[in-house]
UniProtKB/TrEMBL annotation:
This is histidine kinase. The lineage of its organism: Bacteria, Pseudomonadati, Bacteroidota, Flavobacteriia, Flavobacteriales. It catalyses: ATP + protein L-histidine = ADP + protein N-phospho-L-histidine. One of its GO terms (cellular component) is plasma membrane. It is found in: Cell membrane. It comes from Chryseobacterium lactis. It is a multi-pass membrane protein. SUPFAM superfamilies: ATPase domain of HSP90 chaperone/DNA topoisomerase II/histidine kinase, HAMP domain-like, Homodimeric domain of signal transducing histidine kinase. It holds the Pfam family HATPase_c.
Length: 466
């Protein structure tokens, strides 16, 4: 429930605030403790100088014979705030309890001085540093102590200043986080609003590019590409329905018309026979178109449902050419093998031989038909990964404005009225090529001819990908 109410913009703002707060607290703490540490070190250095001065003064005296447990205190003028200095002889039993009670300094501090030669200590207000020294074969300890006004007073001011800065920084970071999150999400909200406007009724609308925003522009371009594909799919579907309706209605109209005419008056058996032959002929055309439509639909599915074998494209091409020449002797086909590879294994593809035969035969047959049986050049070549078949004719070509419809089933170019056909060969061939993970590219110029390139990955490259 909470996640549904809180938007990503709010989450981003809170996250930025948390990050800013953590950074501000981290640096504030770092500054505070660095200054405190520096203050302690600096003050101990001053106390150390004072201790050295005390030792030097005491050693300069003609006679320094302090009784045991006697503390010589406040020897010098105050150089530091509330400075107190002490000098006393080290007890022979190293018991500093009496001295400790007198000067209110813990006895372990004295023991550390004896052990290390120098030690420091501080309570809530005073800082102490002591050093041991030897004079006339006796051991003494000199201690300098003072109040660190900087720590007591100035660090308090530093705390208040840092707290004020932290509060102000949090306030401004909140404003900045709100502004930044709003700026970041504004183009996304704008895109979301525009996407909501797009429906099946206005698929022509496109998202606008966002200035100086590479990532969002990639998203916009990707979405616009998807809209292009959807719009093309919608148009193709509309064209398909129109073409199929027209192609199926024509023979049905002919059948119904012939039957209606035959039944209108009594006719001779010969006339009925002629009418039935016409009806049968039109019914056969209708059956062919329905089968072709079913074939296109089946080849549009995943190619894995088809049986795939190892097929040599050069042998398949020779078989296609022989078949086409046998069907119509006017088919004038020239096979160019100048680009054949040295290794014939490169001509093998993984595919269904019957479907490949059907696709290649359709493309070459179209070339022969629409070039009025002029010579059609078929070239075969291969690279290390692909096999290429290029079919080039010098026929009527395809009008440029109709190139975007050539893969629509039952679509026929406007300059093909004098040629028989159903408009299914090219879309069927493309579906078959796609089933074999290949590519079919058509380039054409009206009255100059058409070139169709088919590319298939060879058997070994498919095995490596698999």
């Amino acid at each position: 429930m909470f996640n549904k109410v809180i938007t990503n913009q709010t989450k981003t703002m809170v996250l930025l605030m948390l990050v800013f707060t953590a950074i501000i607290l981290l640096f504030s703490g770092l500054v505070y403790f660095s200054i405190v540490n520096f203050s302690h070190q600096r003050f101990y250095e001053l106390l150390k100088i004072r201790t050295a001065t005390i030792i030097q003064i005491e050693k300069s005296k003609d006679h320094l014979d302090l009784p045991e447990n006697y503390v010589l205190s406040s020897l010098n003028d105050e150089e530091l705030p509330m400075e107190k200095d002490y000098v006393f002889a080290v007890p022979t039993d190293s018991n500093f309890k009496k001295i400790s009670q007198e000067v209110h300094i813990p006895d372990y501090f004295f023991k550390n001085i004896i052990k290390q030669g120098e030690s420091n200590y501080n309570d809530k207000e005073f800082y102490y540093i002591g050093q041991s020294f030897r004079y006339d074969d006796k051991d003494y300890i000199a201690i300098a102590s003072a109040k660190n006004h900087y720590v007591v007073y100035y660090l308090g001011f530093l705390k208040r200043t840092l707290l004020t800065c932290i509060v102000l920084s949090l306030f401004f970071s909140m404003i900045f986080s709100f502004y930044l999150s709003k700026t970041l999400f504004r183009p996304i909200l704008k895109i979301t609003g525009k996407v909501k406007e797009i429906s099946s009724e206005n698929l022509h609308l496109r998202l606008e590019s966002q200035p100086d925003n590479k990532e969002l522009n990639e998203l916009v371009d990707t979405f616009n590409d998807m809209l292009n594909r959807i719009e093309t799919s919608f148009e193709t579907q509309n064209h398909l329905i129109g073409n199929v309706s027209h192609e199926l209605r024509t023979p049905l109209t002919s059948i119904m018309g012939e039957a209606d005419v035959a039944l209108s008056i009594s006719r001779t058996p010969e006339e009925y026979k002629d009418t039935l032959e016409i009806i049968l002929n039109e019914a056969e055309k209708l059956d062919k178109k329905i089968k072709a439509l079913l074939m296109i639909a089946q080849t549009g599915f995943d190619g894995k449902i088809q049986k795939m074998d190892k097929v040599r494209i050069d042998q398949l091409l020779w078989d296609v050419i022989e078949t086409l020449r046998r069907i119509d002797s006017r088919n004038n086909i020239y096979l160019d093998i100048s680009m054949l590879p040295d290794n014939p294994k490169k001509l093998k593809v993984q595919g269904n031989e019957q479907l490949l035969h059907l696709a290649v035969a359709n493309i070459i047959s179209n070339g022969c038909k629409y070039s009025n049986f002029q010579q059609v050049k078929v070239s075969l070549g291969a690279t290390d990964t692909d096999v290429y078949i290029i079919v080039k004719d010098n026929g009527i070509g395809i009008p440029k404005v109709e190139m975007n419809k050539i893969y629509d089933p039952f679509f026929r170019a406007s300059n093909t009225n004098n040629y028989e056909g159903y408009g299914i060969g090219l879309p069927l061939a493309r579906n078959i090529v796609r089933m074999h993970h290949g590519e079919l590219i058509v380039s054409s110029h009206e009255n100059q001819g058409t070139t169709v390139q088919m590319r298939f990955p060879n058997f070994y490259s498919m095995q490596q990908e698999g």
